[in-house]
Design brief:
With 379 residues, this protein is an alpha/beta fold. It is built from 15 helices and 12 strands. Helix 5 links the parallel strand 4 and strand 5. The two termini are 25 Å apart. The protein binds the ligand CC(=O)N[C@@H]1[C@@H](OP(=O)(O)OP(=O)(O)OC[C@H]2O[C@@H](n3ccc(=O)[nH]c3=O)[C@H](O)[C@@H]2O)O[C@H](CO)[C@@H](O)[C@@H]1O. The site of the ligand CC(=O)N[C@@H]1[C@@H](OP(=O)(O)OP(=O)(O)OC[C@H]2O[C@@H](n3ccc(=O)[nH]c3=O)[C@H](O)[C@@H]2O)O[C@H](CO)[C@@H](O)[C@@H]1O has 20 residues, from helix 10 and helix 11. GO terms for molecular function: UDP-N-acetylglucosamine 2-epimerase activity.
Length: 379
Amino acid sequence: MAPVYAALAKRPEIFAPTWIATGQHSSLADQAFADFGVKPDMTVELKDVPAGVSAQVGATVAALAPALATSDPELVIVQGDTSSALAGALAAAARGVPVAHVEAGLRSFDFDHPNPEESIRVIIARLAQLHFAPTENAAANLRAEGFADRRIHVTGNTVVDALMSVLPTLPAWPETLEPPQAGKRLVLVTTHRRESWGDQIEGIARAVASISDAVPDAEIILPVHPNPVVRDPLATVLGTHPRVRLTPPLAYGDFVSVLRRSSLVLTDSGGVQEEAATLGVPTLVMRKVTERTEALDAGVAKLVGTDRDDIEALAIHLLTHEDDRQVMAQGGNPFGDGKAGERIASLLAREVGALRVVRSGETEGPDGAKDGTGRRSAS
Ligand SMILES: CC(=O)N[C@@H]1[C@@H](OP(=O)(O)OP(=O)(O)OC[C@H]2O[C@@H](n3ccc(=O)[nH]c3=O)[C@H](O)[C@@H]2O)O[C@H](CO)[C@@H](O)[C@@H]1O
């Protein structure tokens, strides 16, 4: 979201953006804010909220209500598929404030994978009046769900903006990490998805150990997500492996420095799929399904699933068949040119004045005709 906020802030004659943070994943979020030199204008306080999406969303909506009353926005912009994004859209809708969704239209068409992100982004789409889709494929998903074409804009994804904004000033290698040994090839691994918790995370860890054993000139770096459900099985299986480095979550610039030097990425992350594609790093997606099919179509990524044997076999093949790895590396980046934030700000400058809030929850037909009952329109 930082690229959108920066682009809005560059237009003070039109926008007065207020960044409200919810404190979700606060340690990772604070690190990201520092990486981009931004800080929220407001942070809502969430105290003693039980774990789980339902409690998080409920508490965040309740906490955002007074924040929106104070800031009294004409538009609320939410990004992605987190419980915070859903809470922001719900709190805005409750006040009759139009919602714009950044990274709109991503669909795996499977509510269990990823869970809860697929459900969240489908719900946000219903609440949004403006959809900023990263790709034509995402826009097609929204049109197929009946959203009016004039509300959908293909902008590229802001994750590419963020990446391109740090690349020019990145060191060759992070100061915080031992450089790889000469002649070693780097494999970067990240895993954290809820649907992989338990046996599948352990299977991924064992696959990583086997890959390292089979490919002695590969050095594996695995920044460990702080959630103990992820951290503990990884430490148990890989904690003493000689050529596997478990690190704390890396600062964004450090992570990108490692990614840029990697020969192969194994990940279940969404953003990393897009960053790797942008940098031309072949990627094995350790999920049952991905909403980033554009990377598969481009050939820069392959959907390998979460089965240990499948991950081992394909990773070892690519690390021992350089021609095949190179073919993937040439796949290209389908996620945008790094100007999504600027495009979104320009579109908002044109659109916000004309926005009508259709609160029936019904979708508008292509010509803007509505079939909902009861609606409130505001311009
Ligand atoms: C279902 C899904 O795919 N949803 C995605 C999900 O995000 P994700 O899956 O991409 O989540 P992570 O993998 O946790 O974060 C990744 C980012 O973290 C950086 N990173 C990573 C490790 C590290 O050590 N240091 C770092 O700096 C890395 O460069 C990257 O930018 O939610 C977002 C918000 O709703 C969505 O927009 C997005 O679609």
